[in-house]
Amino acid sequence: MTYFEITDLFTLYGVDVAVLGIVTCAITQILKTTLLKKAPNKIYTFLPFIIGCVLYFCYFAAVNRSAMFALENFARVFERGLSVGAAATMVYVIYEQFVRGAKKGKDAKTVAIEFLLEGYFEGEKLNTVAQNLADCGADGNAAERKAAEILASAAGDLSAGEIKALSRLVAKTLAQFDTETP
């Protein structure tokens, strides 16, 4: 088999789209956590499709050894690029639902507290602090004091005012969970 027959075989069965979809998913995640960290969520929706089209254009130009040929076949490149974006989205959803989702196993209290603390802690420390705070109970002032102790021991650069405000928010959130009726 020649080089072109091998690449045609991959193109026929979509292996190129699958591989580029995985690469697109990885690039999208890297951009979401670095350069586009503060970008609006709307951008994240279209980002895999844009990156997929660009990657497929580069791939198609490299396989055919001509960027001009890729431009002449714009419709095919665009269609396959959108397929790469769809594959990247599918890979991301599968990862979130089955790999990352299986690891989480958090209750609603922990998730709500993580949301409150998101700008103050990151990564594993955020998870640990949120789980500890979720166990504070819902007894108003006692929960607020316990939350303040946990935050003070975990806080690297939180001010006393931030600790006080966050402990009140946590206590109010926990109280809300305990007063809700199913």
Tell me about this structure:
By secondary structure, the protein is mostly helical. The protein folds into 2 domains: 3-104, no CATH class; 108-175, no CATH class. Helix content is 81%, strand content 0%. It has 9 helices and no strands. The longest helix is centred in the middle third of the chain and has 31 residues, at 74-104. The chain is elongated, with a radius of gyration of 24 Å.
Short description:
This protein has 182 residues and is an all-alpha fold. The protein has helices at residues 3-13, 15-33, 41-64, 67-72, 74-104, 108-117, 123-134, 140-154, 160-179.
Name a few traits of the molecule.
182 residues; mainly alpha; 2 domains; 9 helices
Largest sheet geometry: none
Which residues sit in consecutive blocks of at least 5 with pLDDT less than 50? none
Order of helices and strands: HHHHHHHHH
Radius of gyration: 24 Å
Percentage of residues in DSSP E strands: under 5%
Helical/strand content category: mainly alpha
**Helix percentage:** over 70%
Strand and helix layout:
Elements lengths: L2 H11 L1 H19 L7 H24 L2 H6 L1 H31 L3 H10 L5 H12 L5 H15 L5 H20 L3
Helix pairs in contact: 2-3, 2-5, 3-5, 6-7, 6-9, 7-8, 8-9
